[in-house]
C-alpha cells in the first residue's frame, strides 16, 4: 500500500510540474511572437513618395549655382529674359552654328584652368549676337578691353589684335576668370564682375552687404547678365523647347567644325 501511495504521489507531483511548465511557457511564446511581429513592422519600409517633376525654374543654374526658388522677382526676371531668347526673337540657328564651331576650342581650355563649362556660353552672349568693337572699345570673342587684353597676355596694337583669335583670347579669359574666382568665390559673381569690372563689383558687395548675385541690386546690364548666360545655355541645350526647328538643330551640329579665325 505504501508503494502505491508513493507511486500516486509521484504521478501527482509530475503532473503539477508539467502544468506549471506549460503555464509559464505560453506567455513567453506569445511575447516572442509579438516581438517578431514588431520587428517585421519596424523593418517594413514606409510607402515611397512619388516625387513630382522639378519645374523649369528649379532646374536652371549657372555653374551649379541655382536661382533662389520662391523668389517671385527672380523668377519673373528669368522668364522675361528666357522669352527674349526664343527662336522667333533672335533666330538661334546662328548661335547653334557658332556653338558647334567655337565650343570644341573653348571647352578644353576652360577645363585645363578649372573653369566650369558653363562659361563657354559667355562668348555667345558677349559676341555671338553682335560683331565688331563696342562703343567702349571692347572687342573679340570675349569682348576684352585693350588694357585688360594686354594684362592677360594678348597683343593689341595697330598691326595685331589677338582678341580676334579664339584660342588665345580664351586662354586669356580663363586666366582672368580664375583670378576673379579667387576674389569672389562665387561663379555667378565672377560672371557679373567680368561684365562690370571687379572693382565695381567689390564696391557693390560692400555697399549692399550682400554676396548673392540674384539678391543684389545692380545696373540693368550686369543685373541681367547671368540670366542671359542661363538663357543662352538653355537655348543651346534645349533648342526645340524654345521654338527652334528640329531639323535645323541637326544641321547645325552635323556641320564640320570650322577652324577659321581660331588658330
Give the topology.
Elements (H helix, E strand, L loop, with lengths): L1 H42 L12 H4 L1 E2 L2 E2 L5 H12 L3 H4 L2 H20 L9 H7 L17 H6 L14 H19 L2 H10 L1 H11 L11 H4 L1 H13 L8 H9 L9
Antiparallel strand pairs: 1-2
Question: Keywords, please?
Answer:
Lysozyme, mainly alpha, disordered C terminus, 263 residues
Short précis:
With 263 residues, the chain is mainly alpha-helical. The chain is built from 13 helices and 2 strands. The protein is globular, with a radius of gyration of 35 Å.
CATH topology of the domain at 72-254: Lysozyme
Alpha-carbon distance between the two ends: 124 Å
What structural class do helix, strand and pairing data support? mainly alpha
Strand order of the largest sheet: 1-2
What is the count of β-strands? Answer: 2
Helix content: 55-70%
Q: In CATH terms, what is the architecture of the domain at 72-254?
A: Orthogonal Bundle
The CATH class of the domain at 72-254 turns out to be Mainly Alpha
Mean pLDDT rating: 80
Strand content: under 5%
Count of separate DSSP helical elements? 13
**Uncertain residue ranges:** 21-33, 49-53, 249-263
Order of helices and strands: HHEEHHHHHHHHHHH
Shape: globular
Radius of gyration based on Cα positions:
35 Å
Question: Tell me about the biggest sheet?
Answer: 2 strands, antiparallel
Amino acid at each position: 500500500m505504501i508503494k502505491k501511495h508513493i507511486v500516486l504521489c509521484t504521478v501527482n507531483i509530475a503532473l503539477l510540474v508539467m502544468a506549471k511548465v506549460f503555464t509559464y511557457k505560453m506567455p513567453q511564446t506569445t511575447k516572442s511572437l509579438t516581438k517578431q511581429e514588431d520587428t517585421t513592422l519596424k523593418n517594413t519600409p514606409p510607402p515611397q513618395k512619388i516625387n513630382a517633376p522639378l519645374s523649369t525654374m528649379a532646374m536652371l543654374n549657372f555653374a551649379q549655382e541655382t536661382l533662389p526658388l520662391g523668389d517671385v522677382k527672380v523668377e519673373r526676371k528669368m522668364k522675361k529674359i528666357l522669352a527674349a531668347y526664343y527662336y522667333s526673337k533672335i533666330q538661334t540657328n546662328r548661335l547653334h552654328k557658332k556653338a558647334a564651331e567655337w565650343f570644341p576650342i573653348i571647352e578644353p581650355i576652360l577645363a585645363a584652368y578649372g573653369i566650369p563649362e558653363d562659361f563657354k556660353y559667355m562668348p555667345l552672349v558677349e559676341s555671338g549676337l553682335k560683331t565688331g568693337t563696342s562703343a567702349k572699345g571692347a572687342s573679340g570673342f570675349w569682348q576684352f578691353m585693350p588694357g585688360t587684353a594686354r594684362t592677360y597676355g594678348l597683343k593689341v596694337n595697330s598691326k595685331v589684335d589677338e582678341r580676334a583669335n579664339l584660342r588665345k583670347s580664351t586662354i586669356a579669359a580663363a586666366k582672368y576668370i580664375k583670378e576673379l574666382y579667387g576674389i569672389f568665390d562665387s561663379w555667378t559673381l565672377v560672371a557679373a564682375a567680368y561684365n562690370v569690372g571687379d572693382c565695381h563689383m567689390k564696391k557693390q558687395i560692400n555697399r549692399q552687404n550682400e554676396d548673392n548675385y540674384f539678391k543684389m541690386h545692380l545696373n540693368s546690364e550686369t543685373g541681367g547678365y547671368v540670366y542671359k548666360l542661363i538663357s543662352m545655355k538653355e537655348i543651346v541645350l534645349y533648342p526645340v523647347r524654345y521654338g527652334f526647328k528640329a531639323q535645323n538643330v541637326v544641321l547645325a551640329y552635323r556641320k564640320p567644325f570650322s577652324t577659321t579665325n581660331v588658330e
